[in-house]
Amino acid sequence: MPQKLTVAVAQARTLEDRPSTLTALKRITSDAASRGVRLLLFPEAYLGGYPRTCDFGTAVGARAPHGRDQFLRYFQSAVDLGDTPAGAGDDWVERKLPVANGKNYRGDGTREFLEQVAKETDVFIATGLIEKAGGTLYCSVVYVDPSRGVLGKRRKVMPTASERLIWGQGSPSTLKAIITEIDGVRLTIGAAICWENFMPLLRQSLYSQNVNLYLAPTADARDTWLPLMRTIGGEGRTFVLSANQCMRYNELPSWITEAGPKQDASSDGSHYISTGGSCIVGPLGEVRGDPIWEVSAEGTKDVNPPSKAGLVITEIDLEDCERGRLDMDVAGSYSRNDAFKLTVEGLDLNPPPF
């Protein structure tokens, strides 16, 4: 049967707190569903927030008390999905972990909220989030199927630059691809978060699992991002979805601005600190959904074209991935696997069985 599916990326920004951001996620997902979207990607750190402009009061060899207070507020805004610091893998996915007395689920209810939104809208949701487990924060992506609930979650294995101060390193075992079927379309989905996409071996670990939908939530709004996405699409013969936040300084959560650098007296805070650039790329490296700039999904609805509402929407044909492998499969016929080997600790690189 035809392997065509309508997919989208949401250029959405984190709001003041988790409840308001979750409410926005539900509205944006419902809007996307009304436009025929069956799978929707939200940006890196969408839930919990990307702490752009923050230094948390730190310098080499020094910590300021206000920075610890700022981290406290950031920690409190993060999502508790009920997982463990080491990552419980399939036991977490399958709800085999113990639950506290008097509770019906682990965590703060965000997982259950996302599952309900996916079920009600019939949209597969993938979203970036800041996850707290024990005393550590992780930058993560969670996959939520409308009929089966959460299918998996992965944590960023290499936080970038000063992100390393506030986020832990996730286990490479979480690079495991997930499989699902939507309207008879068979999907093998993996994700690389922001600058993980600059890691050739990490990309290869996803290609090796035969992903046909490669998710790249990001915080990078430079014009160099699209060429990287096009490289990945052509290199992996896979569809690439990338979502970024678009945000002005005065739209940052108050826990950032109250302790952050003071604005120039002449500035009203209306300048962009991230202009977006969310896009969709095909398996020959061609742009299927042009990057959108200086528009966000919050506060906009019933707008056409969808790009004006902060959505990039396109129909994709997953058989294009196989068409592309006529002349290149970097995990198979083109890999020279008799000469080059890749192993990842705790991860089976074979394509998952369907």
TrEMBL record:
Please state what the protein is called: CN hydrolase domain-containing protein
Q: Which residues form the active site?
A: 44 (proton acceptor)
User: Which residue range or ranges hold the CN hydrolase domain?
Assistant: 5-318
Stored CDD domains: nitrilases_CHs
Molecular function as annotated in GO? hydro-lyase activity; nitrilase activity
Q: What is the lineage of its organism?
A: Eukaryota, Fungi, Dikarya, Ascomycota, Pezizomycotina
Instruction: List the Pfam families.
Output: CN_hydrolase
The family database entries (InterPro entries) matched by this protein are listed as: C-N_Hydrolase (IPR003010), C-N_Hydrolase_sf (IPR036526), Nitrilase/CN_hydratase_CS (IPR000132), Nitrilases_CHs (IPR044149)
User: Please, which domain of life does this record's source organism belong to?
Assistant: Eukaryota
What is the organism field in this record?
Penicillium capsulatum
Q: Which family does it belong to?
A: Belongs to the carbon-nitrogen hydrolase superfamily. Nitrilase family.
